[in-house]
Design a protein that fits this description.
By secondary structure, the chain is mainly α. 67% of the residues lie in helices and 0% in strands.
C-alpha cells in the first residue's frame, strides 16, 4: 500500500512465515522461467525504466507501510530597511596653490606645433644679436685709452646687448604669470640697455661710414688731375705777368687763376658726390616717385641710414619675443 500525500514512497520489509517445500519448488520454477524469458527477450531497454518492471510484469508488489510527513512551519523573514548614509565632506588644505592659467599655458607650449615662421624669426633674432654684439664690443674697445679700459668697455657693450636680447621674452613671461611689477622693471631695464646699444651702434656706423666716404672722396680722378695742372699753369702765368706791375694782362691772368680754381673745386665736389652714391640715388628716386613733392637732401638720407644701421642690430630681443609668441 502506498501513500502519495507528499509525493514520496518508502518501502518497508514485511515479516512472513517460512515457505513450504512446494512453495519453494514453485518459486524456483518461476525464477527459471523468468531467466529463460530474459534470455530469449531482445535486449531493448527504455531509458529511465527499471529492468524488473519491463521484464516481469507479474511480480507482486511489496506492501509499503504508510508514513506521515509533518510539515515544518517556516518563519517569514522580516525585511530590513537600509537607511542611506549622507556623504561627509572634509576640508582639505593643499600645500600649494596651482594656477590653472599657468598650467594651461605650459601645456599649450608643449603641445602646439611651432610654424616655420617662428623658427625663421628666432634665427633672424640670433643673427642680428650676433651682429650687435660684434659692433658694440668693437666700438667699446676703441673708446678705451688703455687696454684695461678698452676691455671694460668691451664687456659693457656685450653685456648690454645680451640684456637687450633676452629681457623681452622674460618680461612677457613675467607679465603672463601675473608678476606685473617685475615685468615693468624688466622693460625699464631693457629700455636703458636698448638706448645704450643704439648709441654704440651709431658710433660704430658713423666711424666706418666716415672713413669709407673720406677714402672715396680723396681719390684722384683724371678730371681732378687736369684741373690741378690747369690751375698750376694759370698761377705760373699770372706770376710772370704781374712781376713788373699790375696791368691789363696781369688782371686777365688773375681771372684765369680764379676760373681754374673753380674748375678744380667742381671736380673735387664731383668726386665727393660719387663717394656716397647711395644717398644721391635715393634722393633722386624719392623725388621722381613723389613728382617733386618731397625733396630730401642727401644729408637727411645719410642720417636715416645711420639710424637704421644702428637700430636694426638691437631688435633681436623683440624678434625673439615675437617668434616665441603663440
Amino acid at each position: 500500500m502506498t501513500d502519495d500525500t507528499d509525493g514520496s514512497r518508502i518501502l518497508t520489509p514485511e515479516v512472513r512465515r517460512p515457505k513450504s517445500g512446494a512453495e519453494r519448488q514453485r518459486a524456483y520454477r518461476q525464477r527459471e522461467r523468468q531467466k529463460r524469458q530474459i534470455a530469449l527477450a531482445p535486449p531493448v531497454l527504455l531509458e529511465g525504466v527499471p529492468v524488473a518492471s519491463a521484464v516481469t510484469p507479474n511480480v507482486t508488489a511489496t506492501p509499503v507501510t504508510p508514513v506521515t510527513v509533518t510539515p515544518v512551519a517556516v518563519t517569514p523573514i522580516t525585511p530590513v530597511t537600509v537607511t542611506p548614509v549622507a556623504p561627509v565632506t572634509l576640508p582639505v588644505t593643499l600645500p600649494f596653490t596651482a594656477n590653472v592659467t599657468d598650467v594651461t599655458e605650459q601645456c599649450r607650449e608643449v603641445t602646439v606645433w611651432r610654424p616655420v615662421s617662428s623658427y625663421g624669426l628666432m634665427a633672424a633674432a640670433l643673427a642680428l644679436a650676433g651682429v650687435g654684439l660684434t659692433m658694440n664690443g668693437w666700438f667699446g674697445r676703441t673708446l678705451g685709452s688703455t687696454d684695461l679700459a678698452g676691455w671694460l668697455f668691451l664687456a659693457i657693450g656685450i653685456a648690454s646687448d645680451l640684456a637687450a636680447l633676452f629681457i623681452p621674452p622674460a618680461a612677457v613671461r613675467l607679465w603672463h604669470s601675473r608678476q606685473r611689477a617685475t615685468a615693468t622693471v624688466a622693460w625699464l631695464v631693457w629700455s636703458m640697455t636698448f638706448v645704450f646699444a643704439v648709441t654704440s651702434g651709431i658710433g660704430f656706423a658713423s666711424v666706418n661710414i666716415a672713413e669709407v666716404t673720406l677714402a672715396r672722396a680723396s681719390r684722384v680722378t683724371p678730371a681732378v688731375t687736369m684741373a690741378h695742372d690747369a690751375l698750376r699753369d694759370a698761377v705760373a702765368s699770372r706770376n710772370r705777368e704781374c712781376a713788373n706791375g699790375v696791368g691789363r694782362f696781369c688782371r686777365e691772368r688773375e681771372q684765369a687763376v680764379t676760373d681754374r680754381q673753380r674748375a678744380l673745386d667742381a671736380a673735387l665736389s664731383a668726386v665727393e658726390h660719387t663717394a656716397d652714391p647711395q644717398s644721391d640715388a635715393a634722393v633722386k628716386v624719392l623725388t621722381w616717385l613723389t613728382a617733386g613733392t618731397i625733396k630730401l637732401q642727401a644729408d637727411g638720407f645719410a642720417l636715416l641710414r645711420l639710424m637704421l644701421l644702428a637700430l636694426l642690430p638691437q631688435i633681436g630681443g623683440i624678434l625673439l619675443m615675437i617668434g616665441r609668441a603663440r
